Amino acid sequence: MYVTLNMTAAQHAELRGHLYPGDGNEAVALLLCGHRIGDENTRLVVREVHPVPYARCRRTATRVDWNPAAESDALDRAEREGLVVWKVRSHPNAMRGFSAQDDVSDRELLPIFSAWGEQVSAPSGSAIMLPDGSLLGRYLQGSGEFVELDAVQVVGHDLKRWARTSGTSPSQASHVMAFGEGTFAAISTLSIAVVGCSGTGSPLIEQLARMAPRELILIDPDVVEERNLNRIVHATKDDAEKERPKVEVLKRAIEAMGLGTRVRILKASLWSRQAIRLCGEADVVFGCVDSPDGRYLLNAISIYYTIPYVDLGICVDAIPTSPTTSKVRAACGSVHYLVPGGSSLLSRGLISMADVTAARRAVTDPEGLEREVKEGYVRGVPTSRPAVISINSALASLAVTELIARIAPFRDEPNSNFDQVEVDFAGMTIFQHAHPRSCRSLGAHVGLGDAEPMLGIYMGLEE
């Protein structure tokens, strides 16, 4: 089981501000966490930072004493809302590790936290923040043994991650030269989900797989057809004739690379509980879906499970000039980087709730769905074999570069200026946009995890 702790950049800043007030003494805080308990990965997601007031502590440079009973309001809330409790303390002396004193106090305290949230099977635990803001943590097994967290991830404009790594594999050597060993050591610990494995998704998956992440999760409901052989990487005519699922074809290709990435696949709609759960286990989610309802759902998953979401979209607009020719009016693509607590696709104006409702209605309307399929990639000109693989691949490259930039910022400007990257292929220009306004409607749900109803949706999810 791979266990991680995720929080937003704002939560991390609040935590660091309390633990390091500038007086050189230790301090302590509680984290109230939602969770996603999966078959392979368990995710703890911070819902609230609860600073333990300095006035209720005895603090020195090497020790902090406090009474958990005095924080019963936070513990009662955790019990009431099904949240998991973690303790975090500072080590002003920069000692990287747990002391013998920590061992004694954690063996006394963690069972109390677990008993308070006995209805939740996710582990309570203890973490240390060092002066540089880095975090390490552990939890107590039933056997009485401490188990180290596999990773702590802070999700913001920059993606900060502290993980137990095995170093850099030889297959990553060329990338290491360009961006630094730490970047690709971080990528080797990531679980990455890609939803939509067709024209844009398949070249994206190809590039991600070449960087040897720990795990790729592929979700798509469709099978390979002859009409999309010209844009799905690794698909063959035999795959189309035998109607193999797209996710199976891509899994076969990734495993043939032999780079050690574990691949999990799901042939299902995103609007299924199983797909949502799988996405909730990932460290990063990429969305290659066209529909407003799919994009909305991925944005909600990002917020509930505190995961960065990278949204890819392509539009080719053409007008017919004769029965056999057409003129392209626009060919563009965009990559949106979204984080919980920040702006959303709704607040950015890319989609509206009316769009989402209409898209869900079309799923149950065969005629509406048929119209959507006929429109395909190229608006205004019906075609079943659009020649868009070059555009798809270019946008996929931008999205992968976006991930690298978040892990190891290398651009001339701060990442906060690159919430959206838009490319106009007709004019061969690239634009960047910042979207600083937070989303009011989705922002309140940060860190809820597996709360019911799932993602706040009362009906319409498949099992």
Automatic annotation (TrEMBL):
Top-rank taxon: Bacteria
Question: Which is an annotated GO molecular function term of this record?
Answer: ubiquitin-like modifier activating enzyme activity
* Start and end residues of each THIF-type NAD/FAD binding fold domain: 175-429
Question: What is a biological process (GO) this protein takes part in?
Answer: cyclic threonylcarbamoyladenosine biosynthetic process
What is this protein's record name?
A: JAB domain-containing protein similar to deubiquitination enzymes
Q: Which organism is it from?
A: Aerolutibacter ruishenii
